[in-house]
């Protein structure tokens, strides 16, 4: 069994799933890919060696509390529990019909927004990072390289991330110290630590993200606030 994340939720860095899938296919290994952070960000194809992939509706502006799991045709799967014929007798219980319909509609709308939304989010993210690099000293991007278009993890050297997040929140700028799933937690990110980043810099790192509805005006407003707050904390 191989379990891999297509996109790291904290840095946005993408794994080479095609390469992993090729190995899984050659070795006849079940490969499950967590693609929650990918759906809605860019177009993609499911590699031949991928056995199963998981997705979540809320990541593309669909209803919360509903997900989807893809299985390659012919995959044998035993149910975790029993009791009803729903979902091909693999997951019994009353189905969340409103969630299912909402998720399906959100996926359908992707044809309208992508790939234009991908380009727009990347332009916003690049503008955000470039401006911060030009206006602030001693910052760096954690995980530069092949990334999804919407995520930016930035180290503001010498700035306590917890203090930064509190002040940003007061000004209406939402960010986190790690993945969105870990928002509110101030534990050091194991992702950044495993990347070899100094613990002091991990304590100074904050994650930002944009969505397809974010505007340049909103980004510029956030930039002014972030730059002001960082300078205040450093003074």
Automatic annotation (TrEMBL):
Q: Which Gene3D superfamilies match?
A: Aspartate Aminotransferase, domain 1, Type I PLP-dependent aspartate aminotransferase-like (Major domain)
In the UniProt record, the signal sequence range is none
Listed InterPro entries: Aminotrans_V_dom, PyrdxlP-dep_Trfase, PyrdxlP-dep_Trfase_major, PyrdxlP-dep_Trfase_small
Q: What is this protein called?
A: Aminotransferase class V domain-containing protein
Q: Which cofactors, by name?
A: pyridoxal 5'-phosphate
Q: Which residues form a coiled coil?
A: none
What family is it from?
Belongs to the class-V pyridoxal-phosphate-dependent aminotransferase family. NifS/IscS subfamily.
Domain named Aminotransferase class V is located at 3-221
């Amino acid at each position: 069994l191989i379990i891999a994340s297509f996109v790291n939720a904290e840095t946005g860095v993408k794994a080479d799933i095609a390469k992993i899938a090729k190995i899984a296919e050659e070795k006849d290994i079940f490969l499950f890919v967590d693609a929650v952070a990918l759906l809605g960000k860019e177009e993609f194809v499911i590699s031949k060696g991928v056995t199963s992939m998981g997705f979540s509706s809320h990541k593309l502006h669909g209803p919360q509390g509903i997900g989807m799991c893809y299985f390659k045709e012919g995959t044998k799967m035993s149910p975790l529990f029993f009791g009803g014929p729903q979902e091909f007798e693999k997951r019994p219980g009353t189905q969340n019909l409103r969630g299912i319909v909402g998720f399906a509609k959100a996926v359908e709308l992707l044809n309208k927004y992508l790939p234009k939304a991908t380009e727009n989010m990347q332009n916003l993210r690049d503008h955000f990072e470039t401006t911060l690099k030009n206006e602030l000293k001693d910052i760096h991007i954690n995980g530069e390289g092949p990334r999804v278009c919407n995520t930016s993890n930035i180290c503001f050297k010498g700035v306590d991330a917890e203090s930064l997040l509190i002040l940003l929140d007061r000004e209406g700028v939402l960010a986190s110290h790690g993945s969105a799933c870990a928002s509110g937690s101030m534990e050091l990110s194991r992702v950044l630590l495993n990347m070899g980043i100094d613990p002091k810099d991990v304590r100074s790192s904050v994650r930002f993200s944009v969505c397809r509805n974010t505007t340049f005006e909103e980004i510029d407003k956030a930039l002014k606030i972030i730059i002001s707050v960082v300078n205040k904390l450093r003074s």
